[in-house]
Design a protein that fits this description.
Oligomer: single chain
CATH topology of the largest domain: Immunoglobulin-like
Helix content: 10-25%
Distance between the termini: 50 Å
Order of helices and strands: HEHEEEEEEHHHHEEEEEEE
Shape: globular
Structural class: alpha+beta
Length: 288
């Protein structure tokens, strides 16, 4: 029996490739060798003075509902450096406001970098990999960064006029419930109690493995760092990862690689599949 959903998806991707053209987002990204330790130096402005900047074309995700109604981010500026152990990406895109989410129906600005896990000559589907041919994704969210810098907000922080009649940890007068431990508090935070990694504070970057749409799985122990700054209508986000990631993707100086990007503007209600992305893998050359 024909799987009409897969046929429809294939036709959409074919149509997009004909409209966008094979060359979209295929400028070679060249990671020059840096002398500094990029785990620290990548977050210093002067480190990037000699790094080339490539501008990649992005477009609204076209294949899976819910799709964005318009392309909110049409260009992404990319710089990249490596030090033999770490590789850093500096990403810039236009956004009229910084959105950090928090309350219901509020979403976070975000950006993701995607790499094939297998070193095949032909990379997997640009749409988050495919079955048996996964993608390794580094996902920065402004919301995560705010949680790390300021602490996760409480319900009272988000909704100052709220009141509680079910959760004793939030009572203004706890009565006899004094000196309660974080372990006891977690009983009333079901996500944490269940061990959901999305319920705990993050430093800014999630590492995700995926084999196509709706298959994302967060890696508990991540080995990457990221930080963003919004100024004058533009985001600048730096993400640093190890060249070799056990159980993930490996990048080797002197060997060709591929990379792709996605951007979410939370203030324009972008979350999940509502995003802008590069519709082709961009070749990545890492200098020896």
């Amino acid at each position: 029996m024909t799987n009409f959903k897969n046929v429809e998806k294939a036709l959409v991707l074919l149509a997009v490739s004909m409209v966008v053209g094979v060359g979209t987002a295929r400028a070679d990204l060249i990671a020059k060798k840096a002398k500094a330790d990029l785990l620290k130096a990548a977050f210093v402005e002067d480190t990037w003075s000699g790094a080339a900047t490539e501008t990649l074309t992005t477009m609204g995700q076209p294949a899976v509902a819910p799709k964005p109604k318009v392309t909110t981010t049409s260009q992404l500026k990319v710089q990249t450096l490596h030090d033999g152990k770490w590789i850093a990406f500096r990403l810039k895109w236009s956004d009229t406001e910084a959105s950090g989410a928090g309350r219901l129906a509020e979403f976070s600005d975000a950006v993701a970098i995607q790499f094939p896990v297998k070193s095949n000559e032909q990379p997997p589907s640009i749409m988050m990999g495919s079955k048996g041919d996964p993608a390794h994704i580094f996902h920065w969210r402004y919301q995560y960064q705010l949680d790390h810098e300021k602490g996760q907000p409480t319900v009272k922080d988000l909704y100052p006029n709220s009141s509680f009649d079910m959760y004793p940890m939030e009572f203004a007068d706890p009565g006899k419930l004094k000196n309660l431990t974080e372990e006891q508090r977690m009983k009333y935070s079901h996500g944490k109690a269940a061990g959901n990694p999305q319920a705990f504070p993050k430093s800014g970057v999630d590492e995700v493995m995926a084999e196509g749409f709706s298959t994302s799985a967060v890696i508990d122990a991540h080995e990457s760092e990221g930080k963003g700054t919004w100024k004058n209508g533009e985001w600048t986000v730096v993400i640093v990862r190890q060249l070799k990631r056990d159980g993930g993707s490996t990048l080797t100086p002197g060997k060709p690689a591929n990379v792709a990007f996605a951007i979410w503007q939370g203030g324009k209600d972008e979350v999940g599949s509502r995003k802008s992305l590069t519709m082709n893998w961009a070749p990545l050359k890492i200098e020896e």
